[in-house]
Amino acid sequence: MAPPSRSFLKDPFGRPVDSLRLAVTQRCNFGCFFCHKEGEETRGPECSAGHIERIVKAASALGMRKVKLTGGEPLLRRDIVEIVSRIAPYSDEVSITTNGFLLDKYARELRECGLKRANVSFHSADPETFRKITGSDRLDQVKKGVTEAIHCGLAPLKLNMVVLKDINDKEILHMIEFSKEVGAILQLIEFEPIQAGSEPYWRNYHYDLQAVEDWLKALSLKTQVRELQLRRQYYLRNGAIVEVVRPMHNSGFCMHCTRLRVTSDGRLKPCLMRNDNLVDVLPILTQNVDDLALAEAFKEAITRRQPYWRA
Hints:
Layout: E1 9-10, E2 16-17, E3 19-23, H1 49-61, E4 66-70, H2 80-87, E5 93-98, H3 103-112, E6 115-121, H4 127-134, H5 139-152, E7 158-163, H6 172-182, E8 185-190, H7 199-205, H8 210-218, E9 220-225, E10 232-236, E11 241-245, H9 251-255, E12 259-262, E13 267-269, E14 279-280, H10 282-286, H11 291-303
Parallel strand pairs: 3-4, 3-12, 4-5, 5-6, 6-7, 7-8, 8-11
Antiparallel strand pairs: 1-2, 9-10, 10-11, 12-13, 13-14
Helix pairs in contact: 1-2, 1-11, 3-5
């Protein structure tokens, strides 16, 4: 059973750490050209379901009671249902980020074994643009997954749209309408080219969401500011809900980050944008070292946390 306490560890900047973003694979069946692979630069063996359970159990004991499973595409793991079943008892909320291709197959079973929410990477509702971004022509299959997930109660379901200049930026209004129609929250995400790293690449695709956010505010009945990274949700007059994620050069965003990442090959990752401060826990897991060593590794990773963007 999950422990009742909620005592959070804090990093050197006073930020509580209450959640994990845990990559279970780097494999993916789509080929989004801008994918940052959760900041993973190397590819080692994937953690087993048992290893993932130990990681989540240790994190839970330290106050990290929300878990987001990511990839790659997490539904490519044949044991994804087992993974959710194993970690759900240690979590207040287990959620997943998926490209949606296999969601209609797994949504109900995942919901029944403890999954609470889903985010679907959904960058365009136009088949041609969808194909250009993802390298796949399975837009209809993804839509089926979205419908099934909502029907199964994986709510609130969010559609993650990375806004790309001259590719899908003209679709924002249409995506707002689409998300309202299917009963999802639209999450507009600012492009962050952490792996390409080149200035021309940044200039080619970055789309500043400030003007969009000002427009959303003018159309909103109310605005809600989330505790995580001060993300704002806009409740529009037409019934749509739009959340805006603007991480780049945003010190407020970083100063309100409360999550610790875990790579698919078993390393604790204090920040998406860095790979020089990782803590490898795979040796602890594979050599059957006791959980005290795992807890100490978590504490070490949290001491290495620094806001990437600072005021």
